């Protein structure tokens, strides 16, 4: 007898070329049946009229004390996510949040390389970079991230960081930007040149196409050309009109380069007063926790929160044009493969967890098939992370499942390894699992969290030498 049978839903699976009404069975946490028969099961879920897809994997989100916070876990679970990559850290705060407020999700974490946190300044030596990278891995990180748009390094330090990570087969993600160029097309040009053909992950590609350097269409065209000419670079795109950054100021100036850029691009003073004015005008919105979920506060409430907390709160700006979001979500290369293979939200605890909400709109519009949506929302990222038993419904695969309503485009129920996480729209799971490397397995265990170990060095060596 099966543990669970999901009956009569529209089952879509990219890997197995499936998109039709089927029954999906689970036994011992794994996919055990897919077909039209109705085998006996301890529990049967009627899924008629619903979409049944491999668990949504968010390839870029935030759930740390720096950005996102521990509300992120419930917010992602509510949005149908089962696995995600936290792309900033600090690492320990993500672990602490999972222990305290986790929702059963599987999470990989990248540790930020930030002056004052684990490097001394914007131009660290090779030895300092190597030490920070190894300490991050031994603490449980999947890899490291340069928050160039927020807390940049010099161009030379960025170039050396890419070389060091490539030589050691360390997963490196970069938010484009340096001490000389910002989080825009100029930053993209710079980091690709600095890499000199070496592979790395370039975060949220659409975020650099906002028309701040060249006309928007020209920026999109050049960025697409750069990606086509550099297949060694992996990236992802998101579907939300808002971004997420920090309003924290030092000497009345926003610490984050992205915050400064958002203010400057729309004619606001680059200062605490400029942030307050942007919030008052509705261009920016302050994050507010309501009943355990982060929302965007009204202008009046946002200003109150900023003043009460000395500006040290997350804030979102309406900066992402629809054209660049749509283009990078749907554009294909001449060989028929996608220019950008995976979706992300850059959300988590930022209220823009819209992979289902906006991604299924693209399916309704005819810009993607449902199988293509599964590729971009689950399968591709599972492969990239080395989680080969996720992202598909092959026999023996992890029973990570998202059931969604195609009309509301919201998650109804989710399961991870056959265990319920979201039941009829309510988050029911706790805790979670950390995806780490062999270097970090002991640290995760000492922290009291279960782990899933991926040999990232071998994974990247195989991929990069292909």
TrEMBL record:
Highest taxon above the source species: Bacteria
SUPFAM superfamilies per the UniProt record, alphabetical: Composite domain of metallo-dependent hydrolases, Metallo-dependent hydrolases
Protein's name according to its UniProt entry: Amidohydrolase-related domain-containing protein
Span of domain Amidohydrolase-related: 51-184
Gene Ontology molecular-function annotations: hydrolase activity, acting on carbon-nitrogen (but not peptide) bonds
Species in which this protein is naturally found: Mesosutterella multiformis
Cofactors, names only: Zn(2+)
InterPro entries: Amidohydro-rel, Metal-dep_hydrolase_composite, Metal_Hydrolase, Metallo-dep_Hydrolases_sf
């Amino acid at each position: 007898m099966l543990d669970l049978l999901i009956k009569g839903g529209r089952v879509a699976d990219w890997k197995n070329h499936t998109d039709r009404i089927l029954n999906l069975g689970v036994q011992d946490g794994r996919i055990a049946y897919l077909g039209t028969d109705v085998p006996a099961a301890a529990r049967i879920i009627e899924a008629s009229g619903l979409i049944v897809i491999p668990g949504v994997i968010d390839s870029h989100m935030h759930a740390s004390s720096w950005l996102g916070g521990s509300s992120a876990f419930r917010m992602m679970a509510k949005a149908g996510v089962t696995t995600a990559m936290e792309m900033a850290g600090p690492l320990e705060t993500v672990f602490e949040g999972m222990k305290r407020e986790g929702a059963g999700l599987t999470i990989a974490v990248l540790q930020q390389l930030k002056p004052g946190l684990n490097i001394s300044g914007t131009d660290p030596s090779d030895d300092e970079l190597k030490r920070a990278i190894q300490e991050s891995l031994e603490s449980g990180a999947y890899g490291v991230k340069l928050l160039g748009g927020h807390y940049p390094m010099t161009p030379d330090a960025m170039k050396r960081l890419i070389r060091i990570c490539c030589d050691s087969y360390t997963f490196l993600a970069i938010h484009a930007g340096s001490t000389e160029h910002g989080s825009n097309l100029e930053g993209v040009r710079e980091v690709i040149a600095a890499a000199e053909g070496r592979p790395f992950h370039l975060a949220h590609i659409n975020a650099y196409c906002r028309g701040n350097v060249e006309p928007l269409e020209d920026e999109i065209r050049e960025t697409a050309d750069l990606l086509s000419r550099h297949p060694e670079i992996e990236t992802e795109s998101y579907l939300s009109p808002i971004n997420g950054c920090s309003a924290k100021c030092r000497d009345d100036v926003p610490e984050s380069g992205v915050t400064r850029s958002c203010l400057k691009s729309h004619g606001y003073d680059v200062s605490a007063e400029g942030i307050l004015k942007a919030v008052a005008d509705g261009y920016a919105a302050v994050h507010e926790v309501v009943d355990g979920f982060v929302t965007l506060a009204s202008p009046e409430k946002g200003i109150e929160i900023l003043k009460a907390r000395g500006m040290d709160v997350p804030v979102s700006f309406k900066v992402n044009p629809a054209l660049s979001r749509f283009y990078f979500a749907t554009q294909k290369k001449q060989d028929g493969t996608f220019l950008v293979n995976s979706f992300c939200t850059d959300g988590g605890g930022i209220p823009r967890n819209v992979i289902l909400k906006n991604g299924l709109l693209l399916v309704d519009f005819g810009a993607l098939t449902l199988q293509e949506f599964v590729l971009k929302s689950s399968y591709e990222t599972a492969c990239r992370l080395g989680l080969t038993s996720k992202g598909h419904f092959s026999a023996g695969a992890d029973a990570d499942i998202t059931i969604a309503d195609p009309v509301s485009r919201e998650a109804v129920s989710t399961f991870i390894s056959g265990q319920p996480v979201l039941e009829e729209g309510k988050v029911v799971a706790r805790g979670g699992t950390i995806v780490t490397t062999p270097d970090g397995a002991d640290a995760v265990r000492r922290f009291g969290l279960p782990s899933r170990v991926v040999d990232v060095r071998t994974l990247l060596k195989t991929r990069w030498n292909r």
